[in-house]
Amino acid sequence: xxxxxxxxxxxxxxxxxxxxxxxxxxxxxxxxxxxxxxxxxxxxxxxxxxxxxxxxxxxxxxxxxxxxxxxxxxxxxxxxxxxxxxxxxxxxxxxxxxxxxxxxxxxxxxxxxxxxxxxxxxxxxxxxxxxxxxxxxxxxxxxxxxxxxxxxxxxxxxxxxxxxxxxxxxxxxxxxxxxxx
Length: 181
Description:
Layout lengths: L1 H14 L1 E6 L4 E3 L9 E8 L9 E4 L2 E2 L12 E3 L11 E3 L8 E9 L5 E11 L6 E2 L5 E2 L2 H29 L10
Parallel strand pairs: 1-9
Antiparallel strand pairs: 2-7, 3-4, 3-8, 4-5, 6-7, 8-9, 10-11
């Protein structure tokens, strides 16, 4: 029994699809259920969620946000709301590094138990942007660049000021007295 379980886990892991995206992107999570079947239940799970809530939950033909983890509410939708040809792929919007994890798509069809269809290992990388808008929509900027440029401008102004004073003083010096030899 132990060997079968390990073999099954290895097969699931090897069949897992790896997706890497940048923070802020929208990412499709593909899942193909049985074609021409009456899908009665769709569950998108993430194995490391600390709650029993789902990434996305659909019973019948209606998504149900009350079973959805709060961090995913309003950010997950079916790619094809009519689920034509068994396509139960979803789009996860505005991903962030907290969305990194293993996602599982499980489907139930009328008269059968839930079946694992697809496993996705999602890795969200920090976009590395230091400008643009943050996750709350507020502007953010290159603080280090601004401070550095300000320092350069102040230093350049100080050099110009010192040079102006030096020239002015040099022009107002009395001529040198003649040397006595």
